[in-house]
Amino acid sequence: MKKIAYSKAATKALRKMQPKRAAAIVARVEAFANGESVDLKKLQGSEFFRIRVGQDRVIIDDQTMQVLVIKAGPRGDIYNE
């Protein structure tokens, strides 16, 4: 199992979400860290990956033994920087 770390922006976004949506995102990230199959896709022009959780997206950096959650939020807003 890989360790999971959340950025300050991801933590803030998860706190603002409804508890059920936030729990689904955390569960999906934990499933990925445990090696389970998730809807994972590499982002173009970046070293980051995205995990799809319903209408929400999670941007992660899959480092060697740690998963860093960079951003989490609705599909339309997550890719804008």
UniProtKB/TrEMBL annotation:
Residues 32-81 form the Cyclic nucleotide-binding domain. InterPro entries: cNMP-bd_dom (IPR000595), RelE/ParE_toxin_dom_sf (IPR035093). Signal peptide: none annotated. This is Cyclic nucleotide-binding domain-containing protein. It comes from Rhizobium johnstonii (strain DSM 114642 / LMG 32736 / 3841) (Rhizobium leguminosarum bv. viciae).
